[in-house]
Amino acid sequence: MTEDTFRSVAIERTSLGNYVVRNVRGGSVSLGAGEDGSFTPVELLLAAIGGCTAVDVDHITSRRAEPTGFTVAVTGDKIRDEAGGNRMQNLRVEFTVTFPEGAGGDQARAALPRSLKQSHDRLCTVSRTVELGTPVSIVETPAPTAE
C-alpha cells in the first residue's frame, strides 16, 4: 500500500465496553456497546455508508446551489443468519434534499438523481466495499516490550 491509498483509525479501550476511535488528523468518536449515548459499531457502519454518499452528493450538487435542506436516513436490519452469524441486511440510504428556487436550484435538483447513482455505482468507497464483500483479516499482534 502507498501513502496515498492507506487509511487507518486507532481504537483504544477506555472502560469495559467503551472505546474511543481516533483518526490521524486528531478527530475522535466514542464507540460502545449501546448502553450509553456512544455509537455502536453497527451505527458507525450505517453512518459510514450514508456519510460517504452524502459527501459525494453534497460536493456534486452544491456546485450548482447550496441546499436549503439536506438529511440522510440510513436503516437496516441486524439479523442472525442461517450460519448463526450476525450481519446486516436490507440496507437503505434515503436522501431528503431541497434546493432554493431559481436556475441554480433547478440545476442542483436535476443533478441529484445522477449524483446518487454515481456515488452508489462508482464514488462511495464504503458502500462499494460492503456490496463487493471485501475480506477482513483479524490478527493478533504482540504488545511492545518495555526496554
Description:
The protein has a three-stranded antiparallel sheet, with no helix packed on it. A two-stranded antiparallel sheet has the order 4-5. It is an alpha+beta fold. The two termini are 30 Å apart. The chain has helices at 41-61, 103-123, 125-132, and strands at residues 9-15, 18-23, 28-32, 69-80, 86-98. The protein is globular, with a radius of gyration of 19 Å. Helix 1 (41-61) packs across helix 2 (103-123). It has three helices and five strands; from the N terminus they run βββαββαα.
Secondary-structure blueprint:
Blueprint: E1 9-15, E2 18-23, E3 28-32, H1 41-61, E4 69-80, E5 86-98, H2 103-123, H3 125-132
Antiparallel strand pairs: 1-2, 2-3, 4-5
Helicity range = 25-40%
The string of secondary-structure elements, in order, is EEEHEEHH
Major sheet characteristics: 3 strands, antiparallel
Q: Give the helix/strand class.
A: alpha+beta
Shape: globular
Q: State the separation between the terminal residues, measured CA to CA.
A: 30 Å
**Going across the major beta sheet, what is the strand order?**
1-2-3
Number of helices: 3
CA-based gyration radius? 19 Å
* DSSP summary, beta strand count: 5
How much of the sequence lies in strands comes to 25-35%
Note poorly predicted spans: none
Average pLDDT rating:
95
